[in-house]
């Protein structure tokens, strides 16, 4: 019996916060319609780059992927 069950895997803070990250961004957003995301998308379209939809993640996931920094545009107004 060597298997260990990680009971803490699904544990979240009481606020089960959903954040949004983008493939190119290095920070997480509180809202998918943040100008930090939509502005970058518009610029990408203008330049002919591929646009990736924002991805829903938890704060822990964002931090694991190196995108744990909060966006000042949509997080600073809270
Ligand atoms: Zn933002």
Task: Give descriptors for this structure.
78 residues, alpha+beta, two-stranded antiparallel ribbon, two-stranded parallel sheet, 3 helices, elongated, binds zinc ion
Description:
The chain has 78 residues and is of the alpha+beta class. The protein has a domain at 19-70. Helices cover 29% and strands 13% of the residues. It is built from three helices and four strands. The strands form two sheets. It has a two-stranded antiparallel sheet. The longest helix is centred in the middle third of the chain and has 13 residues, at 35-47. The protein starts with 18 loop residues before the first strand and ends with a helix. Zinc ion binds at residues 29, 34, 36, 71, 73-74. Zinc ion binds next to helix 3.
Ligands bound here? Answer: zinc ion
Helix content: 25-40%
**Span of the ends, CA to CA:** 48 Å
- What general form does the structure show? elongated
As an assembly, this protein is: single chain
Structural class: alpha+beta
Number of strands: 4
Task: Round the Cα radius of gyration to an integer and report it.
Answer: 15 Å
- Helices and strands, in N-to-C order? EEHEHEH
Mean pLDDT: 84
Main β-sheet description? 2 strands, antiparallel
- The parts where pLDDT drops under 50 for at least 5 residues are none
Please tally the helical runs, counting DSSP H or I stretches of 4 or more residues. Answer: 3
Please state roughly what percent of the residues sit in beta strands, choosing from under 5%, 5-15%, 15-25%, 25-35%, 35-45% or over 45%.
Answer: 5-15%
Strand order of the largest sheet: 1-3
